[in-house]
Design a protein that fits this description.
By secondary structure, the chain is of the alpha+beta class. The protein is 17% helix and 29% strand. It folds into 3 domains: 124 residues, Roll (DNA Polymerase III, Chain A, domain 2), CATH 3.10.150; 128 residues, DNA Polymerase III, subunit A, domain 2 (DNA Polymerase III, Chain A, domain 2, Roll); 118 residues, DNA Polymerase III, Chain A, domain 2. It has a 9-stranded antiparallel β-sheet with strand order 9-5-2-3-4-17-16-15-10. An 8-stranded antiparallel β-sheet has the order 14-11-12-13-23-22-21-18. The longest helix has 11 residues. This is DNA polymerase III beta sliding clamp central domain-containing protein.
Length: 402
């Protein structure tokens, strides 16, 4: 059974009609796919099509933790809502233009119509097909977007977020590993992520100073990393607005608004570690690495480091380990450093070392070595970055080899 409701407070329309280019429809369906529920609740595979009085169509999806909405102007005949099945709608729209060149198919107009007596239909390429639908009343209330606290360039935000997203992973035991912490500070937005073996910290400058009342002074909001990474690929506008809900709200929400696309996510309910206490200090030793050596390191990352003077312990933690002296490109001697009491030779997981080198945007990389053999190595673009709190930094913990 199909139920059509109106967003108007006066009369309910007899027919809901949405007319838009097929390219805009498929783009919206692809964007909201990351929030389409796959489990029985709230509505399996459901997407909401809402028309407003201004003629805008809003395509929405909500899986209980992530809500994504796409706004398409001049596509609705008036207020009204339809709840469709995402998979069925996507397959039908693609099947109606099968065999048609993509450029020609994208220029076609798709018309979705529903009334109070019949099932919704889509008209495209001279054919009309019915669409699977659900009762609108079954759809849950969508979360309210927090007020924006920071506006910034999308290109800069995407670049800095991509650098810290290298360190996230799914972890049922330690859920903080799957999140990116958003800290709103007067100097801008600070992004940080860690899986307990590596840590990435990046700073994104904002167009205007963030108000003191909106700043998070002790910790921030822990945003799920995988939805963030997927939505960043879909954003096209020049600027993005970030909203962070109050700390004491339950659930705590974070929103991203960029052009006609918006996302609201429930934060991970876990405490992010205080990474400030493990930051290396400027007086620690550093070793430069060139871009050429960085590239060579990636080519040899599967080659284990050899140390004839030691017996290598077997085990999964050392499988494919890479010596920092060969793959990292630093020029430290392999002889024991009597001043510090240990030999500056460390071993890393190949993929972790490759990720660390990829996060450095400059032509070269500088390694800041720890004071002990078990300490973390800091990767920066320049030595001055060590004392600059706004500079990007990536910490990587080496594998302990006996």
């Amino acid at each position: 059974m199909t139920a059509v409701t109106s967003t108007s407070t006066t009369t309910e329309p007899d027919t809901v009609r949405f007319e838009l280019p097929r390219a805009a429809l498929t783009e919206a369906l692809t964007t909201v796919a990351l929030a389409v529920p796959t489990h029985p609740e709230p509505v399996p595979g459901g997407i909401m099509l809402d028309g407003d009085a201004e003629g805008c169509l809003h395509v929405r999806a909500f899986d209980g933790r992530t809500a994504v909405a796409v706004r398409i102007p001049d596509a609705a005949s008036g207020p009204g809502s339809i709840l469709l099945n995402h998979d069925d709608c996507t397959k039908t729209v693609n099947a109606l233009v099968k065999g048609t060149p993509k450029r020609e198919a994208d220029r076609m107009t798709a018309t979705i119509t529903a009334d109070s007596t019949g099932a919704p239909t889509v008209e495209l390429a001279g054919a009309t097909m019915p669409l699977q639908s659900h009762a609108v009343q079954e759809y849950p209330a969508l979360p309210e977007s927090p007020a924006p606290v920071a506006h910034m360039d999308l290109s800069r935000f995407s670049a800095e977020a991509g650098r810290v997203l290298y360190t996230i992973e799914d972890n049922d035991v330690w859920p903080q590993a799957a999140g990116v912490q958003f800290e709103a500070l007067p100097v801008g937005l600070v992004l940080s992520a860690t899986d307990r073996y590596r840590l990435g910290v990046a700073h994104v400058p904002t167009h205007t100073e963030i108000p003191a009342a909106a700043c998070t002074t002790t910790g921030g909001a822990l945003v799920p990393g995988y939805p963030l990474a997927r939505i960043l690929r879909r954003l096209r506008a020049a600027t993005v607005a970030i909203g962070i809900g109050p700390r004491d709200s339950s659930p705590r929400l974070v929103s991203l608004d960029c052009g006609d696309i918006s996302m609201v996510v429930h934060c991970i309910d876990a405490e992010f570690p205080d990474y400030h206490r493990v930051r290396p200090r400027p007086e620690r030793r550093t070793h430069p690495g060139s871009a050429r050596r960085r590239g060579a390191g990636r080519q040899r990352r599967q080659t284990p480091a050899r140390d004839p003077g030691r017996r290598r312990r077997r085990g999964p933690a050392l499988a494919g380990a890479v010596g920092a002296r060969r793959a990292g490109g630093h020029t430290a001697s392999s002889r024991r450093d009597h001043r510090h009491g240990w030999a500056p030779r460390m071993h890393f997981k190949p993929e972790f070392l490759t990720d660390a080198l990829e996060t450095v945007a400059g032509p070269g990389v500088r390694l800041h070595l720890p004071d002990t053999e078990t300490g973390a190595v800091l990767f920066t673009e320049d030595y001055a970055d060590l004392s600059d709190p706004l500079a990007f930094r990536h910490l990587l913990k080496p594998i302990h080899v006996r």
